[in-house]
Specification:
Length: 77
């Protein structure tokens, strides 16, 4: 519970510092990207704090390139 509270407090502090400047300069696209990335980061941080099993992106990349790797090894033998 304290982990989630700490993560949310840090996220709120980041919002308080960053959003007014983006809003004042009317950088709406940057504000959307900032919000999306912060939301993803907070979500993943909470999941890690709760010891959730988060898949490793490298596993998907390895699965994608495994047939190419096998083919290259077959060619080089």
């Amino acid at each position: 519970m304290w982990v989630i509270t700490g993560i949310l407090l840090v996220a709120i502090l980041i919002i308080i510092i960053e959003v007014p400047a983006l809003w004042k300069e009317r950088q709406k696209k940057e504000l959307w990207v900032f919000s999306l990335l912060l939301l993803i980061g907070v979500g993943l941080s909470i999941a890690v704090g709760l010891d959730a099993n988060i898949p490793n992106p490298f596993d998907w990349i390895a699965l994608l390139f495994k047939p190419l790797s096998d083919f290259m090894m077959w060619l080089l033998k």
